[in-house]
Write a structure and sequence with these properties.
The protein is mostly beta strands. Helix content is 12%, strand content 41%. It has one domain. The protein has one helix and twelve strands.
Length: 210
Amino acid sequence: MIRLRLAACLFAAALFAVPTFAADDLKKVAADLDGYLFEFPCRDPMPENPKPGADGISARMTDDPKTNDKFTDVKKFGGEAGKRYKVTLRVRGVVEPMMYKDGQQVGERFYIGGVPNNKTYNIYQLTVSSPAQHFFFNRDDKVGHRIFTIDYTATIEIDGGATLTLHGDGQNGHMITNFAKLVVPEIAPAPQPYNGQFIQLNVVSVEEVK
């Protein structure tokens, strides 16, 4: 009787473990997105006592308008062709505000679709090839010489095998420096402040859309 009860307990434990392993395996389809870091470093060292609202020169500034203060990285989403996945991202960073329009605001900072609505502040954008859509991460009602931390989750849909284009554009070779020396715990160089701005994406979960 004891052996039968033990076998039943082990069988039940195995059943409950299956969804966890399945979820972990499914999360791997978004491996190229997990941990991605948008970075806008400042060119000059951070002063000991930064001036509030200080403007700084981007380390990405060049003399070529085609490359000045911008970058693009192309990744591949895994999964199976013909299947769609719901991906929940955790979005953390130190950013300046940016305005967007003609899209959909979700929460305070996340913006779906639309276009930038200012010509000088930093843009953080993810574009998904299928289903075709793009997203912005530092939405605000107005721009200004402010800097703040973000930490939120956003859920998007991505088809198996889709192309992911991650794009940053500082637009003018300048940025609002991290004058407040803000730190996002658990993201390097924490506990030291990052000299510039950044956003890190982490995949919280992936679910197949039925």
